[in-house]
Amino acid sequence: MIRLLLAALLLLPGAARPQLPDFSEAETRAILRHGPWPAPWTRDPSNRVSGQPQAIELGERLFFEPRLSPSGKVLCATCHAPFRGWQDARARAFGLVEVERNTQSLMNVRYQRWFGWDGAGDSLWAQSVRPMLDLREMGGSQAHAAALVRADAELACQFQKVFGVAPPASDEAVLAGIGKALAAFQETLVSGRSPFDEFRDALSRNDLSAMKQYPEPAQRGLRIFVGRGNCSACHFGPAFSNGEFHDTGLPFFIKGGVDPGRHGGIRKLEANPLNLLGPYNDDRSGASAVKTRQVAIEHRNFGEFKTPSLRNVAQTAPYMHDGSLATLADVVRHYSEISPDRLHADGEALIRPLRLSAQESADLVAFLESLSERASALPPRQPASACR
Predict the structure, then answer these.
(1) CB within 8 Å of 22: residues ≥ 6 apart
(2) What is d(CA 132, CA 341) in angstroms, rounded to the nearest whole number?
């Protein structure tokens, strides 16, 4: 009798009917490629202390160490604040002064292939020391950072325990060690599972009951994302990024000139003594340095910027390399109305105006919001222990 009553109620005009997802085989394959999460990970072969608990502990201590900046006022966590999604919620980063680019979140950074909006870092450890040396950010130097580690008994002790030797006489070698410890800590920053992940896994096992828990607007937005929106061409895989560089149709003019993006990043990469072609790469096989050896500047690299991950994207506003778009709705509107004339003529024709309706735009935002973790997967911070 109860079943008959429920069936009758569902037949009433206006009665809510939960819709079963009806993704095509091609859509299903595209969706499944965005998982499982968390994605498999292996240690960084270029960093011999990758994954080591003592290196992680030292890296965490250094991440929250204001003395790495001569002013004592700026630390890594100034721009990468844990309570702000490991970024700063500003349009453009501000260390000692404001710079021209938005702060990227460090969440899931271990899955990246290139580092920084322009890819000037070919390893997480090389990228980790860059802000220390930038006069606008932390305003330090190799000599300052190395002197701190040598002079501070706790830092010197931890350095020796991690690397097996006391901080060496070479400032550059100490700086490389600082970067590797910082990288080991940042590799632990992995986001928790999201509503999308639950839906994706339910889809993989054809669990209709579990799939129905995923909101219908997010389902419709997901269909746009993997379908006619072609968003997954760049935001690909479990981390929702192909790790490469693209022209997004935004102006690259900045105060006093232009931001060359990847074009300038390659020049910085080639000039960096800590790149993977240098003596501090711990990967003796040479495999990790192949990507760096093969990089070459092309005209189309000008104004290209790295594709960011979309995980936890609702928590990391504002958006784009220059922080010029305040909300996810603004980002969707940008790609919906983008002018093809603004894009490189010699680049890949991946981006076209989507011409989304108001409902479609709202659905795509609902999908992007569903990529936020339900709960943090990170353990609570522990007080630093004394080095013995």
Answers:
(1) none
(2) 39
Identify the residue whose tokens are 């109860």. Answer: 2
DSSP symbol at 54: H
Residue-range domain boundaries for the chain: 20-38+193-246+307-375, 53-186
pLDDT digits (tens, 9 = 90+) for 172-211: 999 999 999 999 999 999 999 999 999 999 999 999 999 9
Residue 129 burial (CB < 10 Å; 0-12/13-18/19+)?
Answer: buried
Q: Do domains 20-38+193-246+307-375 and 53-186 have the same CATH topology?
A: yes
Residue with tokens 């100034």: 78
Cα–Cα distance measured from residue 229 to residue 199, given in angstroms and rounded to the nearest whole number: 20
Q: pLDDT for 142-154, tens place per residue?
A: 999 999 999 999 9
Give which of 191, 152, 196, 160 is closest to 30, Cα–Cα: 196
Element (H, E) at 253: strand 253-254
- The percentage of residues in the chain with a pLDDT greater than 90, rounded to a whole number, is 84
To which CATH superfamily is domain 53-186 assigned? Answer: Cytochrome c-like domain (1.10.760.10)
pLDDT at 30: 97
Q: In the CATH scheme, what is the code of domain 20-38+193-246+307-375?
A: 1.10.760.10
pLDDT score at 382 = 82
Q: In sequence order, which ranges of the chain are alpha helices (DSSP H)?
A: 2-11, 25-32, 53-63, 76-79, 124-133, 142-151, 153-163, 171-186, 195-204, 208-211, 216-226, 262-271, 290-294, 328-337, 358-369
The pLDDT value recorded for residue 19 is 56
How far apart (Å, rounded) are the C-alpha atoms in residues 78 and 87?
A: 8
Which distant-in-sequence residues (6+ apart) come within 8 Å of 378 by Cβ?
Answer: 188, 189, 190
DSSP class of residue 117 equals T
What is the separation, in whole angstroms, between the first and last Cα of the chain?
73
Looking up tokens 């989507």, which residue turns up?
354
* pTM, entire model: 0.93
Give dist(CA 78, CA 44) in Å, integer: 26
